């Protein structure tokens, strides 16, 4: 037996399989946690290794085996050996320490001795109940971290054992000793030379006896004290573990052979007294403190033992690591305790506790591999909480219309359960849950359910604390019947490797019932067994991965929760063949002529699984790049002679073939050029695809032309069965579709071509017979009442459309959505019985032949004797906006609206409106206007419906009140008129009754389209209209609005704008002439709105105060003479407008004045800049701007003086 220990700082970089990350319990070792160590316990054949688990059970591991273990604090676990055996620690130069168990004798045998000479091979194994072998320790056990499935398989060559973590006080009993078999090859990798050399050196050392053992037998033997093996050379195998146990701060001793002697060897009695002293200190733990008690969590805290920090220190003055273990019991103070925490922290948060449960907690202290006694237990009780989630309810009894559910009470968590909440989805999948039961019982019966329907339930429990979570959802089905035998599946479409099938829903099942279908297939004729191919709720399936051109048989099963139906009839169908390969390239056969040539080709190598039906020879005319192909030949021959070709034209030919598997690819093209000769003649049209029952698609070839002229148009002629000839197509295309044909009829088609020379002769006729179509629409069936509950439905045969009618389908139901097939057969009548009284029914008919089903007939309805109508449920009075739509006054009328009630089989003929003392009969309408009512009056109204049976009950009363009269419009007046604006005003309304503060006026103006548009809405009594045209009349009207409604419009009033005066012009220009004369000129103004324009020139002489008119006319220049020297003259001009319609003259404003002085033959103009250069003259005649600047400057100076004076006096 060997215990191999590897320190973490001594593990090589290339880890063995146990340490390379394969095992989940060792990542802290690889990360360099120096307090962790790995031990390999190697059990030889004939030996037994025993481990005590957490629950106290013993696990015996017989050899040969290799058990990996981990010490969390780095110490070697204690090895409990039988009497007469000792354990010693040997450390090699690689840092691997081994605990060797050998017989205690004067001569110690090396571990490499074979079993033949070992003194222990004949010893009988010790029994497990011997008290010396099982150390009765109450310390914590570290359970296995991972199972054998997580370990590499090569690590356990004999037995797969789980790796285990043990504390430093855990026991390892041994039974039976034999020779040591090395396992060093598990820790080396052969590809690395250094590790290989290290392995060989280690193996040699193990195979040869150590020198210290052979030199001193007594010094190398060990003695066992209190379960700990101690060698006489001073190397302890258990307590120290390399000095200081597993503390990270303890310095490691030097690497040396553990068999070498030490000078400071300790006496066993001193070792026991030191251990007892430390154990007494650790036993002084106070009881832990419990805080923050919740329903499932609690916080524990404790203090270290008194005097621990000053108690025992190592010879290097470093304190040992102190760890704590917390034990928990839920079976009382003296019950069984379970270790829940081990570590160095002084507090621990307990989680996952049970609510309303009494717990006891006690704490152990461990110091220097010595464990003290436990502290005094402390008790606490967790709080109560909501119940646990209950188990889902279970059905105890079910029928077609009821379900009985029962359930068990969950854990109440300290508070008695008061009620249960049962919810269901009412049979509607994914529509949410609703409450179906709430009470204290633990069972529930639900009735009035649908047969064979699944209902989903969930359950919750409630106590005084709260409500638990919902249980898992469970689906319970009501009882039903086994489905009927389904009809045989129908073939939708067959492919090369697949077949698409569909089937109808099983008859006799409800729409809510879940039906599952199973489709079975028989693949080979010699195999009589059907194999399931599809199972599901869909009514269609595509079977794939089939063989081409192979016959398959199918049958269908239907199943529900009650069972499985009988198989349907067998459907036999065959997969389609694959499309064939392309034929060989066409080759020329014989000579080439001017109008044609012969070609031949060989069949394809792969026909796709079916015979070739026909070959298509395609031809293309033009350059080699042309890609327009036409079919020249279609048939089963492998050669063809192309005729009627154009002389001197290049053609390309390619061949393809058609089989039941499809159309093959085209072969390689063959270029052929015809000889150059005169052109020749036309070919009959051919049918593209299969003819339909109402249309045929035709195609034809380009006819050869002797002249080489291209064809511009084609004409197709059709001869009907009645020998009526008509042209059905004319155009440049080579194909056409002829529509509106009769089903099952034969038509003859001919085609001819047109070029510049005219039409050519018709081709030979092609006879085409249209396919048979589905029958025409049936006439509405007639219904005859045989009795109150029996109806005879009869009908006439419709148009057959080329095929005899095979069956009639009659659908019957209460409405169009619920129609179901009631009859299917060839009889022209059918009797329907067991009809409900006072019910409404409808039916429709459909004819079917081999081409398909025709359209349904018109819907025919019938009803049984009727009764008086129901009461009107909805009666209301429309609002004002709806009253306006009737163009009625809401003050004198009320608009009633109601919904038509159920007539109970007889059409409603009229209604009676009751106003108390007045009854008003009305027709079959849903709205009515009550006129001639009093304004602002309340009425109580009710209504009843009348049919031919009689009058129904009255509806409930409603109250309605008429509106007051709307206000009258005010009088509209024009307050002021301008050339581009009009100001209007209006007074109060003539009726003082409506003169309220909330009156609103709407002013409208007439636009160019003679329509009135609103321009103002508000409470004001005046409004000014801007941006108008001068001398134009505008029409206005006004309306008053208040809470009673909109009043009538006023009379239309027309107001006109005035004419605008001419604009002001710039200052005139003055030019000196010879003598004492000057010329005055001014700008020209165009005529205004057709009115001529004149000018008035005025002059101010010297110091006169008034201007005098010197000219009036239409000219823009004027000469004035007789001027005096050194006299100031000022000229100004205004524009005059002469109105032709009123003979009125409008004068505009005068222009700015211009100064002029005649002095020394020099003209001074103050109005033109730069015309006077003398500064003295300019200063003598200031302008208006200069006068304004002088005034402003004077006022500014005066203000400054006043400000200085005021400041001076105020400062004094």
What does this structure look like?
The chain is mainly β and 1212 residues long. It has eight helices and 82 strands. The chain has a six-stranded mixed β-sheet with strand order 6-7-1-2-5-8, with no helix packed on it. Strands 76, 77, 79, 80, 81 and 82 form a six-stranded antiparallel β-sheet that branches. The protein is extended. Residues 1-35, 105-196, 202-266, 310-319, 989-996 and 1162-1179 have low confidence and may be disordered.
List the helices and strands and how they pair.
Layout: E1 2-7, H1 27-30, E2 37-43, E3 48-52, E4 58-62, E5 65-71, E6 85-91, E7 96-103, E8 164-165, E9 174-175, H2 193-207, H3 211-215, H4 217-220, E10 222-225, E11 228-231, H5 268-282, E12 289-291, E13 298-301, E14 322-329, E15 338-343, E16 347-350, E17 358-367, E18 370-371, E19 378-381, E20 394-398, E21 403-406, E22 417-424, E23 434-439, E24 443-446, E25 454-463, E26 474-477, E27 490-494, E28 499-502, E29 516-522, E30 531-536, E31 540-543, E32 551-560, E33 563-564, E34 571-574, E35 587-589, E36 597-600, E37 612-621, E38 630-635, E39 639-642, E40 650-659, E41 662-663, E42 670-673, E43 686-687, E44 696-699, E45 713-719, E46 725-731, E47 735-738, E48 746-755, E49 758-759, E50 766-769, E51 782-785, E52 791-794, E53 805-813, E54 820-825, E55 829-832, E56 840-849, E57 852-853, E58 860-863, E59 875-877, H6 880-885, E60 894-898, E61 908-914, E62 919-922, E63 927-930, E64 938-947, E65 958-961, E66 972-977, E67 982-986, E68 1000-1006, E69 1012-1018, E70 1022-1025, E71 1033-1042, E72 1045-1049, E73 1053-1056, E74 1069-1072, ...
